[in-house]
Amino acid sequence: MGAMNLLVHLARLLNVVPVPLLDTQSQMLRARAVIEANRLGVFETLAAAPQGLTADEVAHELNISPAGSLVLLTALAGVGYLRQRRGRFVNGRWVKHWLLNPRYSLKNFLLVQSHSWQRLNDLGAVIESGRPVRDYYHDPAITPAESETFSEAMRDLSRLLLPEFLKRARLPAGARRLLDIGGGHGDYGRALARRHPGLAPTVLDLEHQIRAAQRAVEAKGDPLDVEFRVGDALTADLGTDWDVLLMVNLVHIFSPDQNGALFRRAREALRPGGVLLIVDQLLGVSRTRDGVAALISLNMFSIGGRCYRWQELERLLREAGFRHVRLKPFSVTVASSLVEAWT
Predict the structure, then answer these.
(1) What range(s) does the O-methyltransferase C-terminal domain occupy (predicted)?
(2) Rounded to an integer, what distance in angstroms lies between the CA atom of residue 45 and that of residue 30?
């Protein structure tokens, strides 16, 4: 598969293959095959059988049709997610590393991608009207199960981002109080508190996200306490005298006006010498990151937000009263960046 992918990449560069067809039919079906296999539990089922399973055996285990099982497994083998040996299927290395390894698993994030897929059915209408079809942040129709999945998906993502974040995040000397706005599971605050003894993290998020986070803490336990507060990032009283404010993958949910107002409230909530730490996907950082951020921006536009150019974000922060704003890109394997805004 590696050699084939390299050949396809070179053919794309030389413009000798029908790129629009590859980017629509092929990519669409590849994505949907992985999403559905993840949802159905195909990869876990195969992991429980090191010798591999036939399509009929997978169908029996998952209570799906034998014909559907064969078509799905063959497609996944064709794009490298599975390997096929004498009619038996086993997981490929991508699945083992990125979906089954607890340290790196993106299983829950792929479940959220299933919801995104459905929402993007209305992307054409959103582009034509300029208005989102769903306010995902405030949607009252979100069920407890969806909240649980979203919270766990953000934990999946945090495992990728936290090492890069911790390398770059700088806190005021002697920082004691941290407010993670829209922080859900609270893993970023916990990680910073481990690095900075005496730092007490608080998470502010919507009620359904706070409940999901509390259930996760009760189920898994955590030696470090995090205070959870229910509140809307756009309207809640943020309080005062915080040393650190944190916004991870939050800015891209909101419009420029909403972010401008949020940054002003954040500035007022920080003590002199405090810092606002923003982690998000930004445009205008590098060509490699721009390609990823532009597609994420299209997704966020469908719910009323978008990814921002670094220069635009810097302007909004300075207009809100932050004096020192600094960009710290993560490594190229992660399409996010850290922005520090100091009072």
Answers:
(1) 143-323
(2) 20
The closest alpha carbon to 138, from 253, 282, 278, belongs to: 253
Give catalytic residues, as residue numbers.
252
pLDDT digits (tens, 9 = 90+) for 41-76: 999 999 999 999 999 999 999 999 999 999 999 999
Which token pair is 140? Answer: 């009252």
- Examine the domain organization and report whether 192 and 256 are in the same domain: yes
Torsion of Cα atoms, 127 then 128 then 133 then 136, to 10°: 20
Strand partners, 342: 275, 324
Tokens of 308: 């921002």
What residues have CB less than 8 Å from 68, skipping those under 6 apart?
Answer: 59
Cα distance between residue 270 and residue 34, in whole Å: 44
Could you say which of 70, 100, 130 is where a domain stops? 100
Question: Residue 64, exposed/middle/buried by CB under 10 A (0-12, 13-18, 19+)?
Answer: middle
Report yes or no on 330 lying in a domain: yes
Rounded Cα distance between 282 and 54, Å, is: 44
Domain count of the fold of the chain? 2
pLDDT in tens, 228-265: 999 999 999 999 999 999 999 999 999 999 999 999 99
For residues 67 and 196, state if they share a domain: no
93, 139: one domain: no
